[in-house]
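[job 4471] stage=fold_predict status=RUNNING
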Amino acid sequence: MSYHVYVARPGFESSPISTDEWLAAASACPLLRIITTTNRKGIVHHSVRLASDPDRRIWRLPTGVIDAQEPTPEVIEALFSIAPKLGADVYSEKAKKYASVQDWESKTKSYRAQLAVARTKAHQVRRHERLRLLAKLATAAVVGAALSWLLRDAA
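[job 4471] inference complete, writing structure tokens
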């Protein structure tokens, strides 16, 4: 399941987080590491990753919002660590503010449970629709066979 958690200031469009602010906050967080690379053109790129899992990236979007995709509890902890340094808060994809790591965990658990129920219901609906289609096809086959038998006898 893909989802995002954001760090943003209230009114994020009018008060974006700058790259310098982002890198300063990330470098001050012991849970994060900044990896700096230079490409062939000499352009410097900074990649912020979770210290314990370098595959987990957190990045700043061009809009000045910090984004973490498919976050783990450790990523959420890092986001809550840097948010106050940026004068920002942690938000869900639906722009709902999280109060703490525990709040994120409980809301995520609840959301996943709701999603599982919705998927089960959708699966049941699709199964019911397939059975109805199968019944219609069987009925059509029986009617076709009966008509064929009647027409054969009539001839």
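[job 4471] summary: The CA atoms of residues 1 and 7 lie 20 Å apart.
[job 4471] exit 0
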